[in-house]
Amino acid sequence: MLDTALWISLALILMALALNVYRLIVGPDMPDRLLALDTMYVNSIALIVLLGLWLNTKTYFEAALLIAMLGFISTVAVCKYLLRGDIIE
After folding, report:
1. Phi/psi at 29 (nearest 5 deg)?
2. Domain 2-84, classified CATH 1.10.287.3510, yes or no
3. Cys-Cys link to 64, which of 7, 29, 48, 85 (CB 3.0-4.6 A)?
């Protein structure tokens, strides 16, 4: 039962990643592309967690936490750059 749920989740997350890549390429302006990148790192975290569940190991959960922290910091930095033109005041 868990294998079926993991395969369905994997398919849905890969579909979401494909839609994010489309928005990243076609996006009309920079905030849309930034939002697509932000959503892509959230989906990659979900993929890493699914891999951790599938392989039954805890190492992948720690990697997902590290990617989440780095993704948040990078999103804040890029947003500050887009709004102000400078990251450090």
Report:
1. -140, 175
2. yes
3. 48
pTM above 0.90, yes or no: no
Alpha-carbon distance of 53 to 59, in angstroms, equals 10
Going from the C-alpha of 7 to that of each of 45, 59, 69, the distances in angstroms are 16, 21, 27
Residue 68's SS3 state is helix
Query: Which residues of the chain fall short of a pLDDT of 70?
Result: 89
Q: Which amino acid is at 78?
A: V
* Domains in the chain: boundaries: 2-84
Q: Return all residues near 52 (Cβ < 8 A) that are at least 6 apart.
A: 58, 59, 60, 61, 64
Mean pLDDT taken over the chain: 89
8 Å CB contact between 44 and 74: no
